[in-house]
């Protein structure tokens, strides 16, 4: 994003070069997570006006729409936005930055960040989310993280840390709930967090493509990435000789409801515009 130092911005923008790979190989999110978002927000996604910020290729955007939400995708990256537009041509797409959302105050029932909030400056993006939310609206942040309670994941992450410069340098750091609370009560946001576990089973090639779509692989270039991933293929096939990788994830979810009037009068709202 434009406000970031050069090194961090290079990592944030690296996804544009691997956008098609990202769209094809990255995991989605389990239905239970969206159930938790609704429970913690105190309202449903159906009929809600949602700004999906840092929408990337639209993985979460599509899942939010499947829940009946009216979603506007917000994405600063050219390559990522092109993938989103190609895959979901009917979705309103705004080229924008979470640190300075190009929307009027009080227009959204939800502001969501899937796998993206760590690329913003929280001291700017959290007030921006609070500004564009209606009273009683919800700021929802979530990440798929490798489940390091699983031994083979520990082995993989240890190998990648040794082999790839910048390994998780700009991933989720700390606790999003604590970060929001540290910004003070003036935001009017009341955060709570939850952790959920889930798995998906994919061919080894998909798993390797997923790894290669991470920023720290994208910045080292295709040739360097290919060499490391080929070594990783051998390690994986020793654990999964049938070539099907069971990927374990832990979803880190934080939902912060904005102070305001009772939301029951908007629960069934269906007149939001895109």
Helix content: 25-40%
Rg over CA atoms, rounded to whole Å, is 19 Å
Order of helices and strands: HHHEHEHEEHEHHEHHHE
- Range of strand content: 15-25%
**CATH homologous superfamily identity of the domain at 6-147 and 172-199 and 249-266:** Vaccinia Virus protein VP39
Shape: globular
Please tell me the overall pLDDT: 91
CATH top level assignment of the domain at 6-147 and 172-199 and 249-266: Alpha Beta
Alpha carbon gap, first and last residue: 24 Å
Going by helix content, strand content and strand pairing, the class is alpha/beta
Which strand order spans the largest sheet, edge to edge or round the barrel?
3-2-1-4-5-7-6
> Which segments are poorly predicted (pLDDT under 50) over 5 or more consecutive residues?
262-274
Provide a count of the helices: 11
**CATH topology description of the domain at 6-147 and 172-199 and 249-266:** Rossmann fold
Tell me about this structure.
The chain is of the alpha/beta class and 274 residues long. The chain has a domain at 6-147 and 172-199 and 249-266: Rossmann fold. It is built from eleven helices and seven strands. The chain has a seven-stranded mixed beta sheet. Helix 4 links the parallel strand 1 and strand 2.
What is shown here, in short?
The protein is of the alpha/beta class. It has a domain of 188 residues: Rossmann fold.
């Amino acid at each position: 994003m434009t406000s970031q130092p050069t090194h961090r911005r290079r990592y944030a923008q690296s996804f544009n070069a691997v956008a098609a790979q990202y769209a094809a190989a990255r995991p989605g999110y389990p239905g239970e997570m969206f159930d938790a978002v609704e429970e913690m927000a105190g309202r449903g996604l159906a009929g809600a006006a949602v700004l999906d910020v840092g929408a990337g290729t639209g993985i979460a955007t599509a899942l939010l729409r499947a829940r009946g939400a009216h979603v506007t995708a917000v994405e600063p990256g050219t390559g990522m936005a092109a993938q989103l537009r190609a895959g979901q041509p009917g979705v309103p797409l705004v080229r924008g930055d979470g640190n300075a959302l190009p929307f009027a105050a009080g227009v959204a029932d939800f502001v969501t960040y899937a796998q993206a909030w760590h690329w913003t400056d929280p001291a700017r993006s959290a007030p921006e989310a609070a500004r564009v939310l209606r009273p009683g609206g919800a700021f929802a942040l979530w990440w798929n993280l490798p489940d390091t309670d699983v031994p083979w994941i520990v082995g993989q992450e240890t190998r990648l840390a040794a082999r790839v410069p910048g390994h998780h340098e700009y991933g989720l750091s700390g606790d999003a709930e604590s970060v929001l609370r540290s910004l003070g009560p003036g935001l009017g946001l009341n955060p709570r967090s939850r952790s959920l576990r889930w798995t998906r089973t994919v061919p080894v090639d998909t798993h390797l493509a997923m790894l290669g779509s991470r920023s720290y692989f994208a910045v080292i270039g295709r040739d360097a990435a290919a060499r490391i991933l080929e070594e990783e293929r051998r390690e994986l096939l020793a654990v999964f000789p049938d070539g099907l990788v069971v990927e374990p994830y832990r979803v880190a979810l934080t939902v912060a409801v904005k102070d305001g009037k009772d939301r029951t009068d908007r629960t069934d709202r269906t007149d939001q515009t895109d």
